[in-house]
Specification:
By secondary structure, the chain is an alpha+beta fold. About 35% of the residues lie in helices and about 20% in strands.
């Protein structure tokens, strides 16, 4: 008998079918043991010995394994093919060796790895067993010890020095630093005004196109050369007075756009976030299901290869299958002459592994989608398309630049355009971007023109612009940044982002990360006192050293010694032979950091410009509004941090922390009194923030005697009313803005904010913007959204199945509606209580909601019937 250990029950069920009756597959449910809780679980002063403990679940799984191997000849450790998977197998073997009731002398222990859960792949792996990889295990031990030493040393210090803080971690604190520093950039950003002059032109064949002013009076215009309305309108007047416009040059070139490689873990998380709106954690959970296997007509099959990888390689079998599919289902020119091979740009990528791909290219998403849940089907389709597209021919575009001059050579206009002459891989897959700056290929289709030909001006539009701050990180862009910096590994990104949210260090609004006050305080503390150990390059260098351990280039204990001897003493240049214990390090660092009052002074100096911004040069931003001479500063209490007055206890003024703004201008005052933000620089009309029945909005000018309605624009949910500045209000009032002409319909696409939120408009068609910024969205992204817009249908959109009602077997489905999530049961639409969504609802909870709703309806109907039953009219005697 052969006992096979895998990590999950789903995988165990699938593999058991492939291996036959002489194999028993048992799940370990992940790690069976972990480091003991306490300050002495990793002992630097004892050669970094570690204490492990087994929880109740781990003990249960170990007992099941022990019972099974009593009658077995082989124990096959088949946990996941990465560092964590190797460690799980090592832990199991270690525990079995310690047990007195287990005799391993009679059992052969082997290690196998499955990169895909298909019968051929599983049988091939079983035929190629190996020993446990000690280098991978050492790298795991080093990583686990580093995380423990940092967390169990810094967290007690945070509790002592910054009450209300929860904990700190080696990698997640660096990710938090990225989010906080981006927020600081946004707060310090000051929008700069600039203008462009756009000219609508027409050829001799009456074909219209657009151009922009690029040269004036013999000088090339830089971005900020037209800095105000006067300069822009003066330039427009010069163009308007020109008598003749001639096409000077036409520059045309053909360019190729190559397909992207298949997915790695991080690129899958990024594209899943952009295209499907899934979090990194949701993506990995769904990918795990696809990897472990689903039931296809009575056969359980793994649909994708292993989903924790940083490789962009495809196996030869996958390459041939992809090319065969393209050859059979596409025209001949969509298949390139040679196979495409990709190389990872990520440091220390495991090139021996494979990228994430379908286990069978010929399992088309339309066929598989009928069997899978909605989100599983969407993710499988994304992986399938990316894989097949990676082996398709490049797209070909003709890029055209047309320069137009007046007869006096006073100014020059330029029109840019491109024509997609061959769509190639774009016919199947196109990458999305978080921000429009990522896509610099925006242009329109130009009509046929010849050099020396005359063109005619039809309209001239000076256009005001403002520079925009860097965007907040999304899950996708943060993962991309961490990967670029070499921080973390594919298997850690999802948990890093989740931990930051669980600790309330950041919040996710409109899919953008915003640091909470606690998160910024912790980051400031770490940067001021432990800057070297949370620097991006230092954290990346530790990741490099972990890879060096894996490749047997360095000893794992040497890595720990070098780190701990400097970290525990805050002396990065000192490497002692005698190492402190964790307890000694905490006490040592506590003394070195000084009193809590010293910490507060440093925090006040660092955070002062953001907590107390200078809005009026004649007033002290730290002056207490409640007393005459008090000074505001950060205060600490057992419940957290706040702003308080220096005259306490005589003055008891306090307020919560608010970065970049003060809270004296309460939002509630806007119910009766608008907040004047400033004046329009061109018209000098007042710009104010107001509150109406539908929420907050910005207004330009006041209602005049002729009762003309002033311009108003709703405040996006991404902007807090208390944070709104004059510059941001000016940007909002510039909406709606023209994005560009759709090359397919030749209609202008505009972006604006309406009664129901941000939108795009093309002709009579509208699209609500959910994940894109109305102020920055570009033409390519806008065209994609219109192309992806589903056609109107009279049929009801299919929801996600929750289960069936036990009484009548009718389906109960989950839907996302305009007013929130709801359940559909028969003809009844039942709104779900707040906090319940598809991720946390099951059939029992659904039945409770339905029964409660139906009961209320019956009571209301009964009450209504009683009230409306007419009384018999009394007969009066004559």
């Amino acid at each position: 008998m052969n006992i096979v250990i895998v990590e999950s029950p789903a995988k165990a069920k699938t593999i058991n079918k492939y291996l036959g009756k002489d194999h028993i597959v048992i799940p370990s449910f992940g790690h069976v043991r972990d480091l003991s809780v306490g300050n002495n679980s990793v002992r630097p002063h004892e050669e970094f010995n570690m204490d492990w403990e087994i929880d109740e679940r781990g003990e249960k799984q170990l007992k099941q394994i022990i019972e099974a191997i009593r009658s077995a000849h082989n124990l096959i450790l088949a946990t996941d093919p990465d560092r964590e998977g190797e460690a799980i197998s090592w832990h199991i073997r270690q525990e079995l060796e310690k047990r007195k009731n287990v005799n391993l002398n009679k059992i052969k222990i082997q290690r196998v790895v499955f990169y895909e859960i298909t019968q051929p792949a599983v049988l091939k792996a079983m035929a190629e067993p190996r020993e446990l990889d000690q280098n991978l295990i050492d790298a795991y031990l080093a990583r686990r010890a580093l995380d423990y030493l940092v967390g169990f040393t810094l967290s007690p210090l945070l509790w002592r020095k910054l009450p209300g803080s929860k904990s700190a971690g080696r990698v997640q604190s660096v990710a938090l630093r990225l989010i906080c520093e981006r927020e600081t950039e946004i707060e310090l950003f000051r929008p700069q005004e600039y203008w462009s002059v756009n000219v609508s032109l027409e050829t001799v064949q009456a074909k219209k196109f657009n151009a922009r002013l690029t040269h004036l009076n013999g000088k090339k215009l830089e971005k900020f050369d037209l800095s105000n309305s006067t300069q822009a309108h003066h330039a427009a007047e010069i163009i308007k007075n020109s008598k003749k416009l001639i096409i000077k040059t036409i520059d045309k070139k053909t360019v190729q756009r190559h397909p992207l490689p298949p997915f790695t873990t991080s690129t899958l998380q990024q594209e899943s976030s952009r295209k499907l709106g899934l979090s990194a954690m949701q993506t990995m959970r769904l990918a795990q299901k696809l990897y472990e296997g689903v039931d296809l007509k009575g056969e359980t099959v793994g649909l994708i290869t292993y989903m924790r990888t940083d490789s962009v390689n495809l196996s030869q079998e996958a390459l041939l299958a992809s090319r065969k599919y393209i050859e059979q289902h596409c025209e001949k020119n969509y298949l390139p002459a040679q196979q495409r091979h990709y190389k990872s740009s990520i440091k220390n990528a495991q090139e021996a592994h494979e990228s994430i791909r379908p286990t069978d290219i010929f399992r088309h998403p339309k066929e598989i989608g009928k069997i899978l849940q909605d989100d599983e089907a969407r993710l499988y389709e994304l992986i399938w398309k990316r894989t097949v597209a990676s082996q398709m021919a490049s797209a070909v575009m003709d890029q055209v630049a047309v320069d137009i001059q007046d007869h006096n050579h006073t100014f020059q206009l330029r029109a840019n355009g491109s024509i997609l002459t061959f769509d190639g891989f774009l016919s199947l897959y196109q990458e999305d971007f978080d921000d429009p700056n990522d896509d610099d290929n925006e242009s329109s289709i130009l009509p046929a023109m010849l050099e020396g030909q005359e063109v005619y001006q039809k309209d001239i539009q000076p256009k005001q612009h403002f520079t925009l701050p860097p965007p907040r990180f999304t899950e996708a862009s943060l993962v991309k940044k961490l990967e670029e910096l070499g921080i973390g590994r594919p298997s850690t990104y999802a948990s890093i982002l989740q931990v930051l949210q669980n600790r309330s260090y950041v919040k996710l609004e409109k899919k953008r990360f915003i640091p909470e006050d606690n998160g910024r305080l912790v980051t400031t503390f770490l940067i001021n006192f432990f800057e070297h150990y949370f620097a991006y390059d230092f954290t990346a260098s530790l990741e490099q050293q972990l890879d060096d351990i894996t490749n047997e280039r360095i000893s794992w204990k040497n890595v720990l010694k070098n780190f701990w001897s400097s970290f525990s003493t805050l002396n990065k240049d000192e490497h002692k032979e005698v190492l402190l214990s964790v307890e000694e390090a905490i006490n040592n660092l506590d003394k070195m950091l000084g009193k809590r009052s010293d910490i507060i002074d440093v925090m006040n100096d660092s955070l002062g410009p953001y907590l107390f911004p200078q809005t009026d040069p004649n007033t002290n931003p730290r002056a207490c509004p409640a007393c005459s001479d008090g000074i505001l500063s950060i205060k600490l209490s057992k419940n957290g941090s706040f702003i308080g007055c220096s005259n306490y206890p005589n003055c008891t003024y306090t307020r919560s922390l608010h970065f970049g703004t003060t809270t004296d201008n309460s939002e509630t005052n806007l119910d009766t009194q608008p907040k004047i933000l400033g004046h329009d620089p061109n018209t000098q009309e007042p710009i104010s923030l107001r509150k109406g029945p539908y929420g907050f909005y910005v207004q330009l000018s006041e209602v005049t005697e002729d009762k003309k309605k002033p311009k108003r624009i709703a405040l996006p949910k991404t902007l807090a009313p208390s944070d709104l500045t004059l510059d941001q209000a000016l940007i909002l009032l510039s909406l709606p803005r023209d994005i560009g002409i759709d090359p397919q319909t030749n209609e202008m696409i505009t972006a604006g904010i309406g009664r129901f939120g941000p939108y795009l408009k093309r002709g009579d068609s509208y699209i609500s913007l959910k994940n894109d910024d109305v102020l920055t969205i570009g033409l390519n992204r806008a065209v994609i959204l219109f192309n992806e817009k589903p056609a109107k249908s009279k049929t009801t959109k299919q929801g996600k199945t929750v289960g069936t009602h036990p009484d009548d077997q009718k389906a109960i489905t989950y839907h996302e509606g305009r007013f929130g999530p709801y359940l559909k049961y028969g003809k009844n639409n039942i709104k779900l209580p707040e906090g319940i969504n598809f991720d946390n609802i099951d059939i029992d909870k659904a039945l409770d909601v339905i029964n409660s709703s139906m009961s209320k309806k019956n009571n209301i109907a009964t009450t209504s019937k009683k009230k409306t039953t007419p009384k018999k009219k009394a007969t009066s005697k004559k």
